[in-house]
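Problem 12. The chain below contains 197 residues. Write out its predicted structure in token notation.
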Amino acid sequence: MREMVKMVVVLVVLSSISGGLLGALKTTTEERIDNQVLKFVQGPAIEDILKDAGNDPVSDRFSLTVGDEEKNFFVGIYDGNPRAVAFETSAGGYGGDMGVMVAVDVETDEIMGISVTTHNETPGIGATIETNEDFKKEFSGKPIIGDHKVKDDGGEITAMSGATVTSRAACKAVTRAGDIYEQVKSQIRDQVKNFTG
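Solution.
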């Protein structure tokens, strides 16, 4: 019996030390990981869809709580006017979740552009969503709030040839962006006023 108690105590001590070390490791690396994601994953997408902004939208950002999630909003300033925000949403594609960065004109509530941040789509087919400018441009100028669908589903977006599931995922991600925007629209408009050109 004494040996068993000894083993339990040793296991508890080892588990506590391991848990503490893992927690400390997560805390010390979390900020570095977030910075790497921002620089190499989200940053290029933000710069792509807010390329004409007169500021650095990757640096000019704010966070809002949407539901139970903290979301980053990146601000684009045009002619000295903070007019755009970009933020990321996702939806399930053919190969798993697809991240989509969506830019919105806060004055007109219209989509300025979209760019894919992450995906696991089929190379040469669905993966072409990263470079298919014709597909991405179809969203520009459309109202952010609303249900975005491919034409096969009764919408206005032409699906990429051979990649309907991927196209649908992008539409779902943009629709989710509209839902998020609608929830925090007044907060977004208040926050962008804090940025100047």
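Discussion. The chain has one domain: 46-192. Students who got a different answer should revisit the alignment rule from Section 12.3.
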